[in-house]
Write a structure and sequence with these properties.
Blueprint lengths: L7 E2 L4 E5 L5 E5 L1 H7 L2 E5 L6 E2 L4 E7 L3 E5 L4 E6 L2 H4 L3 H4 L7 E5 L2 H5 L4 H11 L2
Antiparallel strand pairs: 1-2, 2-3, 3-9, 4-6, 5-8, 6-7, 8-9
């Protein structure tokens, strides 16, 4: 699966989708879920929590390991995907549809400055060698 070109990415393997209402949705990439394996638990942040870019904000646990999920930009959490509480494996089935949380960024320019799909793929490729 390739990385969708309509999304932005972080070096820590989060994807970011800009929504029509000015919020962004965040999840983990295909590469991240492949490394982790079958998801068994997802811990999401509290709605209303203020985040700083790079802050640990959520946790995904798989049969292999637990991994932190980081805030791609600074802002406030506006929603969480509660479906992941009972079905964390949704991330394995379709990581780009299984958003973990949404946030209102403090600065939209910070979102625009994140990596595009090609830049993210270069990071994935460099990790493989």
């Amino acid at each position: 699966m390739s990385n969708p070109s309509n999304l932005k990415y972080t070096a820590s393997h989060e994807w970011v989708k800009s929504e029509a209402d000015g919020t962004i949705s965040i999840g983990i990439t295909q590469h991240a879920q492949e490394l982790l394996g079958d998801m068994v638990f997802v811990e999401t942040p509290a709605v209303g929590r203020k985040l700083k870019a790079g802050e640990e904000v959520a946790v995904v646990e798989s049969v292999k390991a637990a991994a932190d999920v980081y805030a791609p930009v600074s802002g406030e959490v506006t929603a969480v995907n509660s479906e992941l509480d009972s079905a964390p494996e949704t991330i394995n089935a379709d990581p780009y549809a299984a958003w973990m949380f949404r946030m209102k960024p403090d600065n939209a320019a910070d979102v625009a400055a994140l990596m595009d799909a090609a830049a993210y793929q270069a990071i994935v490729d460099s990790e493989a060698h």
